[in-house]
Amino acid sequence: MALRVCGRLLRNGAVLSGRLVGSARQESASCLLAAGNAACSRGARHGFIFTPACFITSEAFLSGLMKGKAAETDSSIHHVPASVPPDSSEQVSLLLKHPDQPPDSKMLKVAIIGAPNAGKSTLSNQLLGRKVFAVSKKVHTTRSRALGVLTETDTQIILLDTPGLTTPSKAKRHQLEKSLLVDPWNTVQEADLVVVMVDVSDRWMCSGLDFEVLKCLAQHQHIPAILVLNKVDLVKAKDILLDITAQLTCGVVNGRKVRVRPVIKPPWAQKKPERTPELSPDEDTAAYEDGAKPNSVLSREKLKELRSQQGWPHFKDVFMLSSVDREDVETLKNYFLVAAKPGSWMYHSEVLTDQSPEEVCTNIIREKLLEYLPQEVPYSMTQSIELWQDGENGELDISVKLYTKKETHMFSLYIHRIISCGYKCPGWCKRQRLWLCSSSSPSDIVRSKCAAARCLQTSIT
Ligand SMILES: Nc1nc2c(ncn2[C@@H]2O[C@H](COP(=O)(O)OP(=O)(O)OP(=O)(O)O)[C@@H](O)[C@H]2O)c(=O)[nH]1
């Protein structure tokens, strides 16, 4: 069972747009062309131009508006290099280009780890100042390690965004790829600094570090790590953040005791049961199948010890921020720039990510499927690019086939724009449009009894 997603990227204007196959929408197409040309005249270069990171959520956009930041963000996107050239070979040449580093160059490789949905990709995008990685409110949006490059004056920061840490049993239950088990661990190995992200708006997450995170930290204790308490904008009583810090750091930061004035514990902090020191089957190495076993060197005794731990006492620093706030993230960026050590750059300063244009495209589609399709439906969908070719007017036509495993997930419908919530996320809609379509006629939507289809339709209209 398959559906097709068709998109159009204007090479000259660097705009990813979309079209309905079989029902030409001349009006929309010409609007998009106009937008592309406008972008071009403002100096945009060849390649994808992504939505600025502060447009990732509509909430962020609204808060940006309230702070009067929207105009500033919109104009700034034209000063940064294009994310990815639309052609794979151009991207490969760019990646192979000799780094144009100055004589006193500095480098820092940062691995961002954490439980699913902590906001790792949001933070990476905000640091890069571009929408490079997929973000959604559903867990496991990131499926494999992705690399972003931030180059400022003499310093290059390599950002390694990782899938949310999970256990083999969960991966098996939800049929997740092996990369979700292996990539975070492998990525940390190559890092100079580990950033542990915790969603402080999630009551369960902030009363104790995720056990997988603790294991990963314990195994790479020689690599400095910092704690980032994310989504503080969603926390009303900010003094709770001090309690959370004390909890997640075992009261020790950079070798010093953290003094936290006692506050009345919130009810949820008291309710959470202590972790039992008993190891679950996941700690049993037999639970890892071939190729999915992280190179765990932790003994059973060490694992048991970690089980009774709520936090990690070896963090070098703690940050409290909101990844959707550019100013908050700027502080973290400056920290990275200061922490960078003399060393050669890995990439040319024009490189923004090592992802291929095809990967970027399929990630965007997956992000939108996760955002708009209900429950487990988007997780069972796979994609294959059918068409990636230059159009007559210098645009790039993209057609992607979507496969579903279950018949109930197949939408016998003609789906209109997947991203047409103009008033909801104006950043996206102005620049990027994708269209989903199948061979059925529009009237099929009305006839369709598929709940998923109705849900998608609702979210679109
Ligand atoms: N309000 C608010 N929302 C945030 C913040 N950071 C991230 N989010 C939202 O949290 C959700 C998850 O963000 P992601 O960046 O996809 O999280 P992730 O850790 O990369 O998720 P996985 O791919 O599952 O590992 C998205 O809906 C984001 O918009 C924040 O600081 N404040």
UniProtKB/TrEMBL annotation:
A Pfam family cross-referenced in the UniProt record is MMR_HSR1
Source species, domain of life: Eukaryota
What CDD domains has UniProt attached to this entry?
Answer: Era, KH-II_Era
Using the UniProt annotation, give all residue ranges assigned to the region (G4).
Answer: 230-233
SUPFAM superfamilies (UniProt xref): P-loop containing nucleoside triphosphate hydrolases
Region (G1), start-end ranges: 114-121
- Segments carrying the region annotation (G3) are 161-164
Protein family per UniProt: Belongs to the TRAFAC class TrmE-Era-EngA-EngB-Septin-like GTPase superfamily. Era GTPase family.
**Protein name according to UniProt:** GTPase Era, mitochondrial
Gene for this chain: ERAL1
